[in-house]
Design goal:
The protein has 607 residues and is of the alpha/beta class. The protein is 40% helix and 17% strand. It has 24 helices and 17 strands. Helix 3 links the parallel strand 1 and strand 2.
Amino acid sequence: MRELEYPFDSEYILKKSKKIKKQLLGELHNPIKKKIAVLGGSTTHDIVRILDIFLLNYGIEAEFYESEYAQYWQDVMFDAPELISFAPDLIYIHTSNRNITSYPAAGDSGEDIDALLDNEYKRFEVMWDKAAKTYQAPIVQNNFEYPFYRIMGNQDAVYEQGRISFITRLNEKFYQYARNHSGFYINDINYMAAAYGLDKWSDPFYWHMYKYAMCLAAIPEFAFNLSNIIKAVFGKNKKSLVLDLDNTIWGGIVGDDGVENLEIGQETSMGQVFSEFQGYIKAQKDIGVILNVDSKNEYDNAIAGLNHPDGVLKPEDFIIIKANWEPKSRNIAEIADEMNILTDSLVFVDDNPAEREIIRTQVTGVSVPEIGTPEQYIRILDHSGFFEVTSLSEDDRKRNEMYQANIERARQQQNFGDYKEYLLSLEMKAVIKSFEPMYMARIAQLSNKSNQFNLTTRRYTQSDIERFAADDTYITLYGKLEDKFGDNGVVSVVIGRIGEGQSSDMTEMSAETNHVCHIELWLMSCRVLKRDMEYAMMDELVSACVDCGISTIMGYYYPTAKNAMVKEFYADQGFTKISEDADGNTTWRFDIPEKYVKKNTVISVNS
């Protein structure tokens, strides 16, 4: 919804939230449904009201639990019955500097202040540990914003007795906990308060009148920032920037002005602006954002512009460069198709408002930010939160290399008349094993991000993944795949539950014996489609089942708007369909033969 895209009108959102919610609910299809507990150290009602609509805009339909005022600590530590029965999928702890119980006094010694700091921190640490153990859900915790006054003036940040110094040290302890605990995320209200303007943000009127931790007008920006963390945790991040060139990543039109006259580099103020923007985009690539080009240009001119000696971005930084005179809407659809991702994974960046409107209206799901003037490009893209980081794995950092290797694979395929010969030429090697600690974060990430090749589309946190790995009643498999072009990393995941009865989402199935494996999750990254990795995973799943004395595998397919490609997946694997309901949910059965013939013939597997 345009009204909820950054930069937005906060006053309009506050006034029209009910109308906006009603419209979003009317347009919502196949939402992710999540329970979110909001545990507040201050008034949270309006935060929840606005957070609700931002999450709906991301396709997340949330049910909320709100603690009573300032009961955040007690609800966790004393097992509030309502919170226990709510069983949250995510816990958000909304505290601010108003919830710090003790600050240093001017006469306190360094030892006194250290003890005070440890006591303040331990109060939170014991709560986080208890919440993680009790609920096994992701936790989002505010850090602390600076106070709106400084007792010691500029030295308040220097002397240990200063409140700014104390908050800085306390925040660092929070960050250290986040670095050492998966599934724990910081909501950086210290940055938000600074970006908004600390005097306005911390207007004492709203605290003393309503017990708000911030001014009312700041709540939409606060809720939007929080929603970006939550949508990232639940796999709703974007994957790729698709960039225009002329007057977007450099000043001028390369075909008219010539490469030598483009504004990029340190010679002019505007050239510096575009250089800084290119540096920002390059940094996005370094955290795993995929870069592509969609430009109305002659291809040779586009490449010449990207090879400008003062440019930060070069042709090799992009996976696909569409520089032609075709409609940009057609180009962007082709980019998604060639990368095997959906158009709703893309963010289109173009200085031309007419081109933005065409993409917005003609290509479903693409995010099209109103980027403003060149000086505003970074701020608007950054605050939009398209690529919010909740973990940073080696796979993330190598994502562009992996997609570039896929392009090379596609080119090589054109040289083969026989597809199996092509697959054999890739010299593929797979590692397929039970879940291992080093890959838990990546496995959880895949469960939240994979939509097309995902049979049940269940979403799991890292805590869930770790629990499955430690439970003997589950068979867990991850699959890594590499070939002569490079390592694709962890690309496939299977979770099977051993036992009697039906899968948790199916209602029409007779009781089974312990000789049954119910497939709770089967997914694969789109970047390895059509390379027979699914057959290799099936072979290893059968082997694991046989080792456990299991003779039957039950498979389940739950249709969504995005996973139609795997509707007949089980049939291809040799399963028999035994039921289908009115919504298209299907149940499949595979009785393992005494002499199972492996389906994979092209991948060398190390298990």
